[in-house]
Amino acid sequence: MLLAVAAVCGCRPQVGQNQNPNAPSATAPSSSPVVVLDAEREEKVAEAVYADNNKSVKQEAKPASELSAVASQPVPAARAVEMNRDRVAGREKEAGKVRSDARQDRLATLPTESRRLGIEQPNAAPGFMPQLDGIAGHGEGPGVGGDKFAYVENNPFRAVADEPLSTFSIDVDTASYSKIRSYLIDYHQLPPQGAVRVEELINYFTYDYATPTDQKPFAANVEAAACPWNAEHRLVRIGIKGKEIANAERPASNLVFLLDVSGSMNNARKLPLLKQGMKLLVDQLGENDKVAIVVYAGAAGMVLNSTNGDDKSTIMEALDRLQAGGSTNGGQGIELAYQAATENFIKGGVNRVILCTDGDFNVGVTSTSDLVTMAADKAKSGVFLSVMGFGTGNHNDAMMEELSGKANGNYAFIDTITEAKKVLVEQMSGTLTTIAKDVKIQIEFNPTKVAAYRLVGYENRLLANEDFNDDKKDAGEIGAGHCVTAFYEIVPASVESPVTTAKVDDLKYQATRDVTPAADSDELLTLKIRYKQPDEDESSLISVGVKDSGNRFAQASGDFQFAAGVAMFGMLLRAGDQDAKVNLDEITELVSNNVGDDSYRGEFLKIVQAAKTLKK
């Protein structure tokens, strides 16, 4: 602990007038190295001591004037620790009293909660002292700074006369769904609005879409019916189904596990669950696969050089040895992991870094923009990225979602061993094997049939219309067997629109936009999809005209109805102005008719019920 204090202070024991050169070393119990503290460093000492002792209340800094006497005097490190302990003791006692009852209740349920999470009792790793999370989403002090979500503004209705095109990047991430599940089921809290990404809720589930019958990597499926939350509107579902690849037929894999073993991972929901999840994945690997393990805390290191996938005992032993401790230098870890992946690159195979973390990067490169820039640059080498998030309390969802998006990757949140099995076993081929990259969707609406529209979800995946044909513009990736779904709520031209065309002066140098003969057809819209093969830089185009069958909602397929119910649930949690008519009773009735024997759909009903007890 004394060494930690000295490190924070930016100094080490010096031989000089304040220290005997023959004195015992700094690690000996009798040593008391002299440290000169200024006001800023004295504050850091207190914070370091606090973190070192796993405190959960961050001390409030004293004004510089109150520290002047200390700053002018040499203070032994041991005395500095004692002084700062005294200073924060009163504040800790006061804040701790407020939380003690709830925390003791949580600790008392550790065995039960471990069973629900599906994790082993975390005594397998010597010295590992697992903790339970604090209140989800809220900061509680050092190491538990609060979950971080990006601000998302709901998509508005747009007038076709002004904006006939809608363009966005596809998304196969599912982290938002399991994060919401954790809030509602484990913590009995409504999730923050920023945690709710409606498209990730919808895409958590699989649907019975037609698979490709040609050489294309995926097939497009479109269905239209009445909108369940506004009977005057229409709802159009666009579905993409990636070609299936059996585990035995997937390409050889060059994998690098990039694992966060910093102090913030010292939690029952984090490192123990992480290790078990990685073991599930290792069990699926074979002789044509390779695995390297890079870990990072205060610094990054290679735990296991690239090892054949059939040497499971060696890989498992390396995972078993992992313990949590230290700060979080994620940027350095990413550099080392990509280096290992590049050195063992398999041409024509799967080359992927799997990053497992709570996202609490606090050493080295920590800014989201710098990390994203680094990952986007590394992706050009042909090494893709999967991001697995763990835990609550300091989970940086915003950074991890952006990181995976720019690094040709996917993002999942692992809250239970069941979720780990879903992502790393059941959907292994989709998680690892990319069948198409930079997939973009563009819709052109027929102005004679559609007055206005809005895209449900995908708010942070919107693209400029000109980006659709720009092959330099990054977009989303589709894995083997993945389903991607998007809904458009459409206001027919015969119905009063919630938006009007923009009132601007007539243009002096251009004529107004006129309709073409194609507008007289019965097409509602045209769907266009651009994509690239994983190892190519030039895109291909799919274009399909879409007609509206006129179906009532009850006539829609069961998958359409279930996905619409999931969308309604996400819209309700986001509390958009357009979604006031959505209610949980209707969602429950709609979804319950389309669950079947799908355990994940059955679980969704439980999540809706949990929200009903909280939503007022």
What does the model show?
32% of the residues lie in helices and 21% in strands. By secondary structure, the chain is of the alpha+beta class. The protein has a six-stranded mixed β-sheet, with helices on both faces. Strands 3-14-16-6-5 form a five-stranded antiparallel β-sheet. Strands 4, 13, 15, 17 and 18 form a five-stranded antiparallel β-sheet that branches. 44% of the residues are buried. Mean pLDDT is 78; it is low at 1-117 and 119-132.
Keywords:
616 residues; alpha+beta; Immunoglobulin-like; Rossmann fold; six-stranded mixed sheet; five-stranded antiparallel sheet; 17 helices; globular; disordered N terminus
Record the SSE blueprint.
Blueprint: H1 2-8, E1 34-36, H2 39-52, H3 68-71, E2 74-76, H4 77-108, H5 110-117, E3 158-159, E4 165-169, H6 175-186, H7 198-202, E5 218-227, E6 230-242, E7 253-260, H8 271-283, E8 290-296, E9 300-308, H9 312-320, H10 330-343, E10 350-357, H11 368-379, E11 384-390, H12 397-406, E12 409-414, H13 417-426, H14 428-432, E13 434-445, E14 450-456, E15 476-479, E16 483-492, E17 523-532, E18 540-547, H15 558-574, H16 584-592, H17 599-612
